[in-house]
Write a structure and sequence with these properties.
Blueprint lengths: L18 H26 L14 H9 L6 E3 L5 H6 L4 H8 L33 H14 L6 E6 L6 H12 L4 E7 L2 E2 L2 E2 L9 H5 L5 E6 L3 H16 L5 E6 L17 H8 L3 H9 L7 H24 L1
Parallel strand pairs: 1-2, 2-3, 3-7, 6-7
Antiparallel strand pairs: 4-5
Helix pairs in contact: 1-2, 1-10, 1-11, 2-8, 4-11, 5-6
The structure holds thiamine diphosphate and magnesium ion (MG).
The site of magnesium ion has 6 residues, from strand 4.
């Protein structure tokens, strides 16, 4: 097991970027975290039906990828899709209404937590079948290529999806047809309670996918700027006919797989290692090294986000 040393956490450099841009990235991640934390309590108090799969700890993947996409690019998502939806521009209201089962929700109240989406915002309602979005994204990318648009289909999935036939079929088709598809693997080391090294011989997913002859890169999925830059570069390749591309984003979920999972299988030291690399705390520390960002700027963003969530809850309860 790795020894924990906070000094070894790789720093994030924000100083080459505009203030508004980095604060917006920060706000997107804070919005995702506050949404997830708020929703957790609504479920625990029994206000909402069903179960939830949450993404606390993985905010940088959603925010970094979606910020690098154009509004007319499309994403597919999974059962763990709240962060993807918020980062792609769905509103807190349409998502909360959906969770409350209201007809005003983004899927008319029929989808719930696992099927967030909005076709007007470039997000196909999320698919809960592990790996299910992969062939779909390949198909969407084929349509973009045939219509000669410059759009890209970005497909989020977990490390668990790599064991599915759909992964291998979808990626192979995208590869042989050079489709503008970006495969975004959020490698959080676990598929439910199973650690990745129990189900995969290679050390990385990037190595595993090499056989399909596509470009692939593993990176620090808890560094939002690294994710943003890698996505921008990969998407540019896709738009130039050099797709598909796979990004393996190393990250960690801070919560159980779903609401009822107490997560005892994550070793304490491993959790501590990753908690020192929390994407929001790390980015906040980096932002405070700038001359133009102060602690109160970050608190203002946090307060605004919490207010935004609370007022959406009030309207959701009236639906
Ligand atoms: C085809 C299929 N098999 C099994 C399941 C049950 N299941 C839901 S999520 C999950 C684990 C997925 O792990 P991963 O892909 O790593 O995503 P993560 O939960 O880590 O985000 C499983 C086995 C399912 N939804 N679909
Ligand atoms: Mg996983």
């Amino acid at each position: 097991m790795m020894t924990i040393n906070k000094q070894q956490v790789p720093p994030i450099e924000t100083r080459g970027y505009e203030r508004d841009f980095v604060l917006e990235l920060f706000e997107t991640m804070v919005l995702i975290r506050e949404f997830e934390e708020g929703v957790k309590y609504l479920f625990l108090e029994g206000s909402m039906p069903g179960t939830i799969h949450q993404c606390q700890g993985q905010e940088a993947t959603a925010a970094g990828v979606c910020t690098a996409l154009n509004a007319d690019d499309w994403i597919t998502s999974t059962f763990r899709g709240h962060g993807h939806a918020l980062a792609k521009g769905l509103t807190v209201e349409e998502m909360l209404f959906e969770l409350f089962g209201a007809t005003t929700g983004c899927a008319k109240g029929k989808g719930g937590s696992m099927h967030m989406g909005n076709m007007d915002k470039g997000m196909v309602p999320a698919i809960a079948i592990v790996g299910g979005g992969i062939p779909l994204a390949a198909g969407m990318a084929l349509a973009f290529k045939m219509k000669r648009t410059t759009q890209v289909a970005a497909c989020f999935f977990g490390d668990g999806a790599v064991a599915e036939g759909a992964f291998h079929e979808g990626i192979n088709l995208a590869a042989i047809w050079n489709l503008p598809a970006l495969f975004v693997c959020e490698n959080n080391l676990y598929g439910a309670s199973t650690r990745i090294d129990k189900v995969m011989k290679t050390k990385t997913i990037t190595e595993r996918v090499a056989a399909y002859g596509i470009q692939a890169k593993q990176l620090d999925g808890n560094n939002v700027l690294e994710v943003y830059e890698a996505t921008k570069a990969a998407v540019a390749e896709c738009r130039n006919g050099q797709g598909p591309f796979l990004l393996e984003l190393l990250t960690y979920r801070r919560t159980g797989h779903s609401r009822r999972d107490a997560c005892h299988y994550q070793p304490k030291e491993e959790r501590e290692y990753w908690f020192c690399r929390d994407p929001i705390d790390r980015f906040a520390q980096a932002l405070l090294l700038r001359d133009d960002v102060r602690e109160e700027d970050l608190s203002t963003i946090r307060d605004r986000t919490i207010q935004r969530f609370n007022s959406a809850v009030e309207s959701a309860k009236r639906q």
